[in-house]
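Blinded run. Sample ID left blank on purpose so nobody reads anything into the name before looking at the predicted structure. Input follows.
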Amino acid sequence: MRILAFGTYRLWEQPRVQVLFEGLREHGHELVECNVPLEVDTASRVQTARQPLRAPLVGVRVADSWRKLWREAKDMPDPDVLLVPYMGHFDVHLARRRFRGKPIVLDHYLFFKDTALDRGATNRAELAVLDRIDKAAVKAADLVFVDSEGHRELLPEPQRSEAFVVYIGTPQEWFREPQPRPAAPAKVIFFGIYTPLQGAPVIGEAIRLLDPDPNELRFTMAGRGQNLDETRRLAGGSPAVDWVDWVERDELPALVADHDVCLGIFGPGAKGMRVIPNKVFQGAAAGCAIVTSDSPSQRQALGEAGCFVSPGDPQALAHALRWLIADHERIWTLRRAAYERAVEAFAPAAVVEPLHERLEDTVRARR
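Blinded prediction complete.
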């Protein structure tokens, strides 16, 4: 089957897109890209949708990208189906106009309204606009998929009943079978952009409660963002914490694999109950034990291969880490379980299986 990936997606910014492409190719599909990356990241797109005064500048960039996409599409081989990847809220409408009669599949991985709420938006008019953008995007597609059952429940009917789940998963470059490590110090890593969803201040407070001896337990806190300063303040200047401002994407898998435990998300918001973050899939593939918030979506993904704590509860996180480091064999067991779960369910070919099946059914029905 020839699949045309169409849009302004930024392949280097979101591993989700890379996983989809790897998995589809592993299933034997011919994947062709018609891509003009938009020079606006996810946070800026959401902010623009909320703040109309920012729209003209972004609108100029979108228009320029669309002109180039339209021209490039003329030279593309005739596809069986179009795939509009991550952040395709507007691209899906262009795809509908340019490829009339072709089935269009939308990865609605991110909901504008839900993301704005998680980041503190309260203006009803702004939220209503974001909601309309979300609904218009899914309505324009023939098939819609999301990354978790929690997100599927946010879709309006009839799209909700027809939508299906495709886990985020992780690219092959992350897979590293766990190797035995010294019993001490146990090494714990968090990496992220410090959004409220990630709940990094919970980690900072848990570090303060643990007051770890650097010879027994060490933390690596990698990344920067909205809640970094608060997280550092709560951690209290512990000598057991290494704060890393930035890690290059190609260096991150090896860094994570050099740790015993990978921390997921701990924010108490509603969005945290729905998502399964990249770092959970990536940490498991890198052979780390996973400690993350207790949510239906994450339990469904990890099963018995994770350690779950109450969201927003630093004491629960501190208790879980004390329990883990008290027994090195316990950490090793969870590391092996997480890696085996990743091989089984988070590798690109496994992740894409539901999408592969629906694409086959869609194209077969049209023929």
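Unblinding after everyone has recorded impressions. The chain has two domains: 2-169+347-366, 172-345.
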